[in-house]
Amino acid sequence: QPWRSRVSPSTLSKSRREAFTIWCARPIAVIDNFSVGVTRRLGIDHETLAAINPRIVTCSISGFGETGPDPLRPAFDQVVQAMGGGMSITGFADQAPVRSGIPHGDLGGGIFGAIGVLAALTAREKTGVGRHVDVSMLDVQVSMLNYMATMFLLSGEVPERMGNAHFVHVPYNSFKTSTNYIIIACIGDAFFEKFAGVVSRPSCVIRNTSSSPCASRTRTTSSPSSMKSWLNTMLTTGWPGCARRAFPVAL
């Protein structure tokens, strides 16, 4: 049966540590998000546990990882969001830096940790030996820059904060209607054709003669129509968009 327990340095007494190490004799995975060095100080680091059970898999999630220039530096979600580059492309250019409303720094570290543990468990099935997974929350944030990083490395152009707009795809933004905001997300000429076919003000839409999917442009920033009217149009014509849902509604 799966077993979970929350352990903190202040509550891990000698007797509890002994009980914990006995439990670790089973082929389990142990995940921690202590500061670097705490597991070794408590006697529950990978080397100690592997001496009891060579098949054990351990995973440590910390701000900057166990190796590198800043292993002892403390970090929380917003710190790694800021250092990982994501905050430099989030929000509006004329405003203060903005973190993501969802804690990607924390969640990303947990998700990548789980992936690492699964990979270690898979390897254990072949080798019979466990291993240690070291996850740096900062490394995760940098890796999640994905295609933005690729385009920068290829072009040398530094991405900027554009609010809800996109530096390649348009219209790809939030737009104010007479009743609420809607989201329009057209990627590629096929969807743009559908969008352009229903816009009631043709002067708002500009088409470049280029065949590139990036050539389409729109200057529409608001609409006198209601949100419901736009949603009905989206559903009937088949171009991507939605209403901005309030938090309680989404839940």
Structure commentary:
By secondary structure, the chain is an alpha/beta fold. Helices cover 38% and strands 14% of the residues. It contains 10 helices and 8 strands. The strands form 3 sheets. The chain has a 3-stranded parallel sheet. A 3-stranded antiparallel sheet has the order 4-5-8, covered by helices on one side. A hairpin with a 4-residue loop joins strand 4 (172-176) and strand 5. Helix 5 (104-127) packs across helix 6 (137-143). The longest helix has 24 residues, at 104-127. It is elongated. The chain starts with 13 loop residues before the first helix and ends with a helix.
Describe this structure in a few short sentences.
It is built from 10 helices and 8 strands.
What is the topology?
Blueprint (H helix, E strand, L loop, with lengths): L13 H10 L5 E4 L5 H5 L3 H7 L4 E6 L14 H7 L20 H24 L4 E5 H7 L2 H10 L16 E5 L4 E5 L3 H10 L6 E3 L8 E3 L8 H11 L3 E3 L3 H4 L1
Parallel strand pairs: 1-2, 2-3
Antiparallel strand pairs: 4-5, 5-8, 6-7
